[in-house]
Amino acid sequence: MSNWILGLTGGIGAGKTAVSDMLAKKGITIVDADVIAKQVVALGSVGLNTIVDKFGKEILQTNGTLDRAKLRHIIFSDSHSKQWLEQLLHPLIREEIITQLHSAKGPYVVLSAPLLFENKLDVLCSHTLLVDVPEHTQLARTTERDSVPQQQVEKIIAAQMSRAEKLKRANTILNNDKSLTEMYNQLEILHQNFVSTALNHSTCG
């Protein structure tokens, strides 16, 4: 792969989106795994048609789009359906990620994915950046932002790879437990380093 790829990840409420938004403003292309996951089941897609063949038209909303709440209920109550869905969607998502990474312009490209390590997307990356905050900060930010009960956020955190494991795997850690200004200052330094590294990589390549 010709581009220098930065894998960006972080637990819920860590501030990964704030980081990717700032990098996008600097002209860096963001390939977002969450956005692609929605695209591969959009109206008329192979992904959606295959899901309808499996679960029937009851899985659709009245406008023909996927009823995500119904699908979520099915896969959380049936492990075989969950496995089937993952086997369908993961290759489609991965293929589209690779296509977008290849076509990206600029000094480097960001692959943003909350499950970067869990879904082994880090193997596509030249370097990984973890946006990190303590768990109590994740809980406070997410409950306030999404107006959801703390228990719900705790379940999401528990379902993801542990913070300790992510810290061990990431190449670079960006602490986002203080003000946005401080985070942006840290990120500016990292960005300049990434540009420099990517240009050196391109020259050597």
From TrEMBL:
Enzyme nomenclature, EC number: 2.7.1.24
Pfam families: CoaE (PF01121)
GO molecular function, one term: ATP binding
Pathway(s) this gene product operates in, as recorded in its UniProt entry: Cofactor biosynthesis; coenzyme A biosynthesis; CoA from (R)-pantothenate: step 5/5
Top-level enzyme category: transferase
GO cellular component: cytoplasm
UniProt entry tagged with the keyword Kinase: yes
CDD domains named among the record's database cross-references: DPCK
Annotated binding of ATP, by residue: G13, A14, G15, K16, T17, A18
GO biological process, one term: coenzyme A biosynthetic process
Keyword annotations: ATP-binding, Coenzyme A biosynthesis, Cytoplasm, Kinase, Nucleotide-binding, Transferase
Cell compartments where the protein resides: Cytoplasm
PROSITE patterns, per database record: DPCK
Catalytic activity: 3'-dephospho-CoA + ATP = ADP + CoA + H(+)
Functional note: Catalyzes the phosphorylation of the 3'-hydroxyl group of dephosphocoenzyme A to form coenzyme A.
Assigned protein family: Belongs to the CoaE family.
Protein name: Dephospho-CoA kinase
Species per Swiss-Prot/TrEMBL record: Pseudoalteromonas holothuriae
